[in-house]
Amino acid sequence: MYTNREWVLAKRPAGEPSMDCFELEETETAALTAGELLVQTWYLSVDPYMRGRMSDSESYAEPWAVGEPLNGGIVGEVVEAESDAYDTGDLVTGEGTWAEYSVMDAADVTAVDPSVAAPEAYLGVLGMPGRTAYFGLLEVGDPSPGETVVVSGAAGAVGSVVGQIAKLNGCRVVGFAGTDEKTTWLTEELGFDAAINYKSTDEYQAALADAAPGGVDVYFDNVGGPITDAVFTQLNLDARVAVCGQIAHYNDETVPTGPRKLPQLIAPRATVQGLLVGDFANRFGVATEQLSEWVASGDLSHRETIVEGLSNAPDAFLGLFSGDNIGKQVVQVTTET
Amino acid sequence: MYTNREWVLAKRPAGEPSMDCFELEETETAALTAGELLVQTWYLSVDPYMRGRMSDSESYAEPWAVGEPLNGGIVGEVVEAESDAYDTGDLVTGEGTWAEYSVMDAADVTAVDPSVAAPEAYLGVLGMPGRTAYFGLLEVGDPSPGETVVVSGAAGAVGSVVGQIAKLNGCRVVGFAGTDEKTTWLTEELGFDAAINYKSTDEYQAALADAAPGGVDVYFDNVGGPITDAVFTQLNLDARVAVCGQIAHYNDETVPTGPRKLPQLIAPRATVQGLLVGDFANRFGVATEQLSEWVASGDLSHRETIVEGLSNAPDAFLGLFSGDNIGKQVVQVTTET
């Protein structure tokens, strides 16, 4: 039994979440039952979709309960095992809690191989965001060589992988991101053909027309809002829009207004489709294998923004909405007892 | 050579078209060259998509030229033939002009069989609107038995066919239309399970929840605007939205604003797709054959709203935007010389 600290949902936010929505509680770890592992958190994942879990409205991810621990992806070390599948000292990843320790079913975790990539990469390029990029782009976006792929939130955990997979598929790739550091990373390090800093211009449509003079064949949308409005004006015949996220809207208290976009779909016979990575669960293994190969070969770069200390987890989460992260945002959990 | 009267585009409209956009000119029919027919118009078609042709912006239908005759679907009688394919007296349909006489290529027309349906039906259920309904519903909407299909503009030329084909496919069908006469026609004559008069309530979302308590699997959209906003709130898992038309927006002078809808696509993994019937041109024959069978068997009802007189063609066209028509709007062209 260990003393544990874990974040619980103190209250639901209205609009933008604030720090008082989170409360750090001290507890003790539960005794394990058969098949369970006690995992000490090395890294925990904060993801934009978690904003939906803070609300009680029905959605694809089960809402977090007020007063209960916040769950999400973690990477950690097995410190107790009531399972033959893992030994103490093994590194695993799976759904844990924003805590120092998580009790996890051995059947629900997968092994982390630090020879492929640093453990924290298993929350990003080799985790849910990487798989989202892989299936979202290849299955929903379905790009062909020579096509133009535009990505919003391009320097984020998902977008940065989307753009690189599109390049590996022979596409022209344009990303929207919010700082010059990010756009430089995209074009200099990740091989994007062009990147637009949407905070340095209001003329998204003109900027996109410059960056994608042949129009847009695939749009992988993580953001929504005015960036998406601009992209919709430049969809090519048979364009595909994969709606992966809409981070610009997650803190909206009411349904926002914007240009009505459906008329713009008719002439190009464009397709807009919402996507959830969970729909591809039976093929996660294939994706992880391919992503691991690309990472190992150097074809796929990845980057993590690491905030240190469990106490800073809410800050790291809230920072997603102001674009503090480059690549995958993770929290390194140090045991501060 | 015949004296002809034909409507030309006098000027392009800004916003809602007015009568002075149209001008009726007297001309003489041209001499035929090999392969051509001179066709005397019995009925001409006015269609919402023609609003796009009045503007000079690039779109899927070639803009009408200022000062030039307005073209569109017609049904008429061959009065001169420089082709062995048709004789004088034959009834044909194809792309003609808003005129008493049209010169048409014999290769581009098809025969009208009045034993299947009245000639004017070849501009509706057995013409482009019927084919649009057929392919748009079955290929883009792709409904399965037991699913709920919602249609906007349900009492129009396309929508009324969509709903009936959905019923023939074992679906629950809900239509939006703008008068009690229309909604009664839909439920009493066409077999719709429910119909909502959108001009008698502002509570579209509540009305739809009543009419489609199991949510919406397929939405065939001819209209856009607030009706579509309401439908988007109630999309089921894997819902398909076929964007066929957006008549509520064709007269907009600027891009209108409305609720941003993309966030609503993620949880249901819904698909929204623009459609143009021309993409299915290589299968038009199959569609017309099936539609003719259904009409002949009585499985598919159709109705035409007939305005008499070539001089009233612009009125009939403008009436589409106020919902004057039930079923297909056509103009019966009498030779008023």
From TrEMBL, chains A, B:
<dbReference type="InterPro" id="IPR011032">
    <property type="entry name" value="GroES-like_sf"/>
</dbReference>
<dbReference type="InterPro" id="IPR041694">
    <property type="entry name" value="ADH_N_2"/>
</dbReference>
<protein>
    <submittedName>
        <fullName>NADP-dependent oxidoreductase</fullName>
    </submittedName>
</protein>
<dbReference type="InterPro" id="IPR020843">
    <property type="entry name" value="ER"/>
</dbReference>
<dbReference type="GO" id="GO:0016628">
    <property type="term" value="F:oxidoreductase activity, acting on the CH-CH group of donors, NAD or NADP as acceptor"/>
</dbReference>
<dbReference type="Pfam" id="PF16884">
    <property type="entry name" value="ADH_N_2"/>
</dbReference>
<dbReference type="InterPro" id="IPR036291">
    <property type="entry name" value="NAD(P)-bd_dom_sf"/>
</dbReference>
<feature type="domain" description="Enoyl reductase (ER)">
    <location>
        <begin position="15"/>
        <end position="331"/>
    </location>
</feature>
<dbReference type="InterPro" id="IPR045010">
    <property type="entry name" value="MDR_fam"/>
</dbReference>
<keyword id="KW-0560">Oxidoreductase</keyword>
<dbReference type="InterPro" id="IPR013149">
    <property type="entry name" value="ADH-like_C"/>
</dbReference>
<dbReference type="Pfam" id="PF00107">
    <property type="entry name" value="ADH_zinc_N"/>
</dbReference>
